[in-house]
């Protein structure tokens, strides 16, 4: 009788265990589709948001992952290869040739200027000296993708993207949707943290990003420096996840990621460097 009870107990425990696994799968938050709101959380391979090793460690999918020690060994480093000063890597003529492809009916036609581009670059310590041409190609690829080939300066959205942040309160009536060159940067936390770093009132006036080309470049570069740059040595694919993991999570979104890779290769060719080998983000 005692054995029978024990078997029954074990079976019950096992049953509950299976149920828990099923529930976890069925109700997963799936941050791979939406990204984790807030600056501090990582989204892991199973679609959960958190800040500990299970989220930000080896199985980190996107967000501020701890990426130390996760190296692939091959020629993955976007920070490697030929370098030069930003104004010699991207000359006014080259910049104009890129922007000349922007159609006249685009709302950002003529908005993104060379002067603003260089000024913004120079305001970050990382770009004061010589910069890797591959990194510049990667930046241009993501900026181009994030603004639909430099056609838009803000997302067509009525979403507020206001989360209950203790640190960065939303201003009444203001919306924190995507603006500028990386329109996947949304939410008050990002506007707040970027504004604090750049010394700009971006929480009070998020539209500043779509009014000033210099602020637009700085806003995107702040994100790049903070979230993307530490992953340069892991290859273009890992970078893509850190800009916006959504394209890497589903097969039906593969087109977006593949287009970014295509653009990266085009910009590498334009700058006369070979792309790295870590292109895929899946
Ligand atoms: C601009 O015009 C082209 C060709 O007429 C069209 O394909 C494109 O969608 C238009 N873009 C915008 C932003 O309206």
From TrEMBL:
Keyword Glycoprotein carried by entry: yes
Gene Ontology molecular-function annotations: chitin binding; chitinase activity
Signal peptide: 1-28
The entry's keywords: Chitin-binding, Disulfide bond, Glycoprotein, Plant defense, Signal
Disulfide links within the chain: 36-49, 42-56, 106-151, 162-170, 248-281
UniProt xrefs under Pfam families: Glyco_hydro_19 (PF00182)
Entries under InterPro entries matching the protein: Chitin-bd_1, Endochitinase-like_sf, Glyco_hydro_19, Glyco_hydro_19_cat, Lysozyme-like_dom_sf
Domain Chitin-binding type-1: 28-67
Family membership: Belongs to the glycosyl hydrolase 19 family. Chitinase class I subfamily.
Protein name stated in the entry: Chitin-binding type-1 domain-containing protein
Organism of this sequence: Eutrema salsugineum
């Amino acid at each position: 009788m005692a054995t029978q009870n024990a078997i029954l107990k074990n079976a019950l425990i096992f049953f509950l265990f299976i149920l828990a696994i099923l529930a976890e799968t069925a109700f997963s938050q799936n941050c791979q589709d939406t990204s984790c709101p807030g600056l501090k959380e990582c989204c892991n391979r199973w679609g959960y948001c958190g800040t500990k090793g299970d989220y930000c460690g080896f199985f980190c999918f996107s967000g501020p992952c701890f990426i130390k020690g996760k190296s692939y060994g091959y020629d993955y480093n976007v920070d490697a290869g030929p370098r030069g000063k930003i104004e010699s890597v991207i000359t006014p003529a080259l910049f104009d040739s890129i922007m000349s492809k922007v159609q006249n009916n685009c709302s950002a036609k003529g908005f993104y200027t060379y002067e603003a581009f260089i000024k913004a670059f120079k305001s970050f310590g990382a770009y004061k000296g010589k910069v890797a041409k591959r990194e510049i190609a990667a930046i241009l690829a993501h900026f181009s993708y994030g603004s639909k080939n430099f056609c838009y300066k803000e997302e067509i959205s009525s979403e507020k993207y206001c989360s209950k942040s203790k640190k960065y309160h939303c201003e009444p009536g203001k919306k924190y949707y995507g603006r500028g060159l990386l329109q996947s940067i949304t939410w008050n936390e990002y506007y707040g943290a970027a504004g604090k770093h750049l010394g700009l009132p971006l929480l009070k006036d998020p539209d500043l990003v779509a009014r000033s080309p210099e602020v637009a470049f700085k806003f995107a570069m702040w994100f790049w420096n903070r979230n993307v740059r530490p992953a340069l040595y892991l290859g273009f694919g890992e970078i893509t996840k850190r800009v916006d993991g959504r394209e890497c999570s589903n097969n039906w979104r593969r087109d977006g990621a593949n287009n970014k890779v295509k653009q990266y290769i085009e910009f590498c060719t334009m700058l006369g460097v070979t792309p790295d080998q870590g292109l895929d983000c899946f």
